[in-house]
Design goal:
mainly alpha; Helix Hairpins; single chain
């Protein structure tokens, strides 16, 4: 149990860092892209998807190692025998979908529960990030100068924190 508990803490930290870095890099370079606002918003959504995909794969690797190789826990229902099965379990747990094809047993229950909570928090975080990007770039639809990064006028001047969210010069 202690091994799975420690693994859960490490997995949460690693997946938070993976999504953080994905969103940070997106935020830093989004304003530099010479593309229309629609494309910038799509880039944000795809970047968030990449961050979540990394998290799911990280957990799938943990299931493969801890459950299939070390025997710390198990799954009932449809057999979990390959990495692809672990990937499916991870997607179902991370998204809190809960198909019921695989029910965790033993120590795997802790790992799937932590993954579900972690996924819920990270999905909410990326949704917030996407909202901020849409708030910034959505009003630029149809403007001729929309291909360039927005200047520091109007609302951005009144709310400097918002302008810095997707600015390459933003300091943490």
């Amino acid at each position: 149990m202690l091994v799975v508990l420690c693994a859960s803490v490490v997995l949460v930290a690693v997946t938070i860092l993976a999504l953080y870095e994905t969103l940070r890099l997106t935020s830093e370079h989004l304003a530099e892209l010479p593309v229309p606002p629609r494309t910038r918003i799509i880039v944000v959504v795809l970047a968030a998807f990449v961050g979540h995909t990394m998290a799911v794969w990280i957990y799938a690797g943990a299931y493969w190692l801890l459950v299939l190789r070390l025997g710390l826990g198990a799954f009932s229902g449809v057999p979990v025998e390959t990495f692809e099965d672990c990937l499916f379990v991870s997607v179902v747990a991370y998204t809190s979908l809960g198909y019921g094809d695989h029910a965790p047993l033993g120590h795997a229950r802790l790992l799937t529960g932590v993954e579900a909570l972690n996924g819920l928090l990270l999905i909410g975080w990326s949704a917030s990030f996407t909202y901020l990007a849409m708030e910034r770039y959505w009003p630029l639809h149809g403007r001729r100068s929309a291909r360039k990064a927005p200047g520091r006028g109007g609302r951005e001047a009144a709310e400097p924190g918002r302008a810095a969210t997707f600015s390459p010069s933003a300091e943490p």
